[in-house]
């Protein structure tokens, strides 16, 4: 007949094992956090290779690897709305060994898509920005419209007759033009083009009278003095264009569009790991080499707290949702 009881010694062993298991697990987690990163970190980008985001992210990855003693391996996973890249990050364990690039584009996606397969506010553990950059508004160098105020005055005098060129509908450049139209209370046409070279050609041909674009894609044309920067879109003058007024200074109070790039992990990542990454980012963006290379692309190397980046994401989702609704842009 089998005994239906256990000895006192057996009971002690069972209880000891039950107590030891969570302690061992906690110690293992603590050790892993204290030694983060313990293996190479995947850094997933929602853009293709060789673009501005790719170049700046690879530099950040290189410096983070040097700082933290493990490689940060950049993976390009482009796709509409940054969805593929975000899902790739969110599909991995919340251990900080897979991070992603979060941008103003993620805020626009949350505003323009009827539904995303994730909630960026709830599921992104924001870590820090790595850079911020304004848009540039420019006219043809031969145009009589030498300032943004000139353009707005002409647009008011000829409602619906002047054109602003941007790239694709729903992009930051396009929405910045929509915001200008609404904020200034003027009627002009916004003409979307396939790419920046097409917008530049249209401006040089006078098919459009103003373009809205980031600095890097139009830098050669600006340096060749074929086009003229007439305004920047940030809250204060750009350090790269100290003599060019902001849109707000040009007669549109309160206007502001600042794009940004940052790094996020999956929600649930330990606060200690977030702190390690945030501290490392703050150090690398202060490196002169990083600041100089970012500046060449019109980007101000800039860190933030995790909460500051989270609040920026939330604010921009609300901002672009309002612009999209007022402009009558169909949700995707």
List the defining traits of the structure above.
single chain, 332 residues, alpha/beta, D-Maltodextrin-Binding Protein, domain 2, ten-stranded mixed β-sheet, 12 helices, 10 strands, globular, disordered N terminus
Notes on the structure:
The chain folds into two domains: 41-133 and 258-327, D-Maltodextrin-Binding Protein, domain 2 (3-Layer(aba) Sandwich); 134-232, Periplasmic binding protein-like II (D-Maltodextrin-Binding Protein, domain 2, 3-Layer(aba) Sandwich). α2 (52-68) packs across α10 (271-284), α4 packs across α12 and α7 crosses α12 (306-327). It is an alpha/beta fold. The chain has helices at 8-34, 52-68, 83-90, 104-112, 120-123, 148-157, 172-184, 196-204, 215-223, 271-284, 288-296, 306-327; strands spanning 41-45, 72-76, 98-103, 124-140, 163-166, 189-192, 210-214, 227-232, 258-266, 300-301. The chain has twelve helices and ten strands.
């Amino acid at each position: 007949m089998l005994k239906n009881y256990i000895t006192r010694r057996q009971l002690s062993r069972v209880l000891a094992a039950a107590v030891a298991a969570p302690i061992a697990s906690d110690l293992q987690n603590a050790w892993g956090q204290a030694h983060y990163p313990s293996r190479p970190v995947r850094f997933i980008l929602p853009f293709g290779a060789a673009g501005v985001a790719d170049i700046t992210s690879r530099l950040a990855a290189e410096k983070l690897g040097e700082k933290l003693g493990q490689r940060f391996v950049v993976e390009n996973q482009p796709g509409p709305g940054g969805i593929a890249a975000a899902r790739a990050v969110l599909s991995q364990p919340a251990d900080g060994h897979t991070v992603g690039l979060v941008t103003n584009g993620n805020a626009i996606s949350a505003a323009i898509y009827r539904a995303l397969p994730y909630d960026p506010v709830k599921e992104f553990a924001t870590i820090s920005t790595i850079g911020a950059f304004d848009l540039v508004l420019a006219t043809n160098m031969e145009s009589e419209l030498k300032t943004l105020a000139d353009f707005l005055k002409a647009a008011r005098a000829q409602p619906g007759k002047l054109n602003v060129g941007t790239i694709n509908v729903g992009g930051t450049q396009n929405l910045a033009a929509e915001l200008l139209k609404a904020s200034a209370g003027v009627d002009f046409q916004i003409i979307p083009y396939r790419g920046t070279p097409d917008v530049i050609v249209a401006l040089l041909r006078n098919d459009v009278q103003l373009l809205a674009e980031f600095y890097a894609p139009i830098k050669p044309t600006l340096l060749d003095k074929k086009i003229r920067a007439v305004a920047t879109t940030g809250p204060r003058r750009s350090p790269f264009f100290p003599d060019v007024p902001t849109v707000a200074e040009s007669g549109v109070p309160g206007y502001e569009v600042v794009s940004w790039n940052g790094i996020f992990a999956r929600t649930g990542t330990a606060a200690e790991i977030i702190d390690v990454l945030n501290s490392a980012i703050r150090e690398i963006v202060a490196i002169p080499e990083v600041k100089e290379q970012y500046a060449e692309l019109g980007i101000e190397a800039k860190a933030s707290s995790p909460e500051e980046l989270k609040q920026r994401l939330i604010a921009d989702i609300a901002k672009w949702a309002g612009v999209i609704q007022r402009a009558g842009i169909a949700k995707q």
